[in-house]
Structures are given as structure tokens and as C-alpha cells.
Fold this protein.
Amino acid sequence: MPARLGPVSFPHRRHQGFLECQVCHHDREGEARPRACRECHGVGGVSTMKAAAHERCRACHVERGRGPRKCTQCHRKG
């Protein structure tokens, strides 16, 4: 059985410099503050954090041709 991949640490400030908040904090328009991803993902039929990160975050990195695109570039064993 293969070893489980480590946790992911998200560098929020690094992304704030070049992305509009709504790119990641989608469906939150009009709210006073954007919610943390985990406040919605995995709750009430919304995709899980794992699914959202693999679909949305990785897709953005592939599309832009920068940022981590391989499993071990995000998942780091402690």
C-alpha cells in the first residue's frame, strides 16, 4: 500500500497579489467578507476541499503554466 501524501499548506498572501478574491472565493459576491474554503466545501452537497483543490486550484496552475502542478509539490510530508 503506498504511503499517504502529506497535508497541503496554502500560501494565501502570495495569491492575493495577483488574483481577484472572487476567483477563489466564488459564489460569495455581496458578502462583507470572503469565507474560508472549508466553511463551504464539504458542507451540504458542495464539493469537498480535496475535490475543489484538485479541480479548481490545480486547473488554474496548469492553465497559467505556473505554480505547483504535481502531487508532491503541494502535498508535503512532515
